[in-house]
Amino acid sequence: MFYKKVALYLCLFFSATACLAQQADTLSISLENVKYPYPVKYFSIHTEGQDLNMAYMDVAPVGKANGKTVVLLHGKNFGGYYWGSTIKALTDRGFRVLVPDQVGFGRSSKPYIHYSFHQLARWNKRLLDTLGIQKANILGHSMGGMLATRFALMYPENTEKLLLENPIGLEDYRNFVPYVSTDQQYQTELKATAESVKKYYQSSYFTVWKPEYDELVRIAAGMTKSADFPRLARVNAMTYTMIYEQPVVQEFVNVRVPTVLFIGKEDKTIVGKGLLSPDQQALHGQYRFLGKQTAAKIPGAKIVEFEGCGHIPHIEVPTEFNVALLGSL
């Protein structure tokens, strides 16, 4: 009888431990249990009959302010949490830094709406207006680069400089990536696991994997275990469609603000890459060429390139990136 009780207690103990471990690995799709580098505030938006929240960090300069603002726009698989070292480098030099989580991402609402870069740009402009910021340097990474470009096209008078860090959309994916519907992409998004997320991050984002990158995987993978993950998967599919259907590449020639591109030369990002054969993949997503080609399209644009660096220079080579960024500002 004694041994049966001990076995029962051990069974309950290990079950509870496993449950706690699973809870620790599970993250809310609104990332309330993810630590952001600075306090998060919320901006209210009403659209398509829905009341939404747009999360953002508004970080004051350290020491003497220089009167300038930098807006950091995140990539598709991220939120403002991955900008920590960039924010510190900028605020240490007197910049005010604004870091929004776009609607559908990070700590912002995850609504079922029509997603468009025009609408996202308009909401960012409203946020700037609300905070009394008349002009800002707009830095966009990856998908944020497409948004930053759209913002500069819509609001050139409010854009001091356009800063693009390995932006996607340097090619028109519609020309060579097969079309998939939002519903089809939703089914693909639902299949995401911790293992598939890490494999994708290792193969797509960095040239050499480092242990500190595991935190990015933990955040993305943790949301796949949430009971609300199907909602996030649907939103992810909607924003995939937005990227595919709303290119900015044809409009680079219309940019009329000072522009700098920051390009990790080993980046080979293609939106919809898994739909292509290896031979097709080799023909596209070559940032060592795309960066220069894009800079040539934008009047007066400059380019800074990073050797041995992939899709996220501000994380993979933070010192070099911050030096280049501050020099460009």
Which key phrases capture this entry?
about 325 residues; alpha/beta; eight-stranded mixed β-sheet; 12 helices; about 40% helix; disordered N terminus; hydrolase activity; Epox_hydrolase-like
| Strand proportion | 15-25%
CATH architecture: 3-Layer(aba) Sandwich
* Overall pLDDT level: 93
How many DSSP helices? 12
Describe the sheet with the most strands: 8 strands, mixed
Q: What low-confidence regions span 5 or more consecutive residues with pLDDT below 50? A: 2-24
Organism: Pedobacter gandavensis
Protein name: Alpha/beta fold hydrolase
Keywords: Hydrolase, Signal
GO molecular function, one term: hydrolase activity
Can you describe this structure in just a few lines?
The protein has helices at 2-25, 84-92, 117-130, 143-154, 182-190, 194-204, 214-224, 229-245, 278-283, 287-297, 313-316, 318-328, and strands spanning 41-47, 50-59, 69-73, 96-100, 136-141, 159-165, 259-264, 302-306. The chain is α/β, with parallel strands linked by helices and 329 residues long. Helix 3 (117-130) packs across helix 4 (143-154), helix 5 (182-190) crosses helix 8 and helix 6 (194-204) packs antiparallel against helix 7 (214-224).
Question: Can you describe what's shown?
Answer:
By secondary structure, the chain is α/β, with parallel strands linked by helices. The protein has a single domain (36-328), classed as Alpha/Beta hydrolase fold, catalytic domain (Rossmann fold). Helices cover 42% and strands 16% of the residues. An eight-stranded mixed β-sheet has the order 1-2-4-3-5-6-7-8, with helices on both faces. Helix 4 (143-154) links the parallel strand 5 (136-141) and strand 6 (159-165). The radius of gyration is 21 Å and the shape is globular. The model is unreliable at 2-24 (pLDDT under 50).
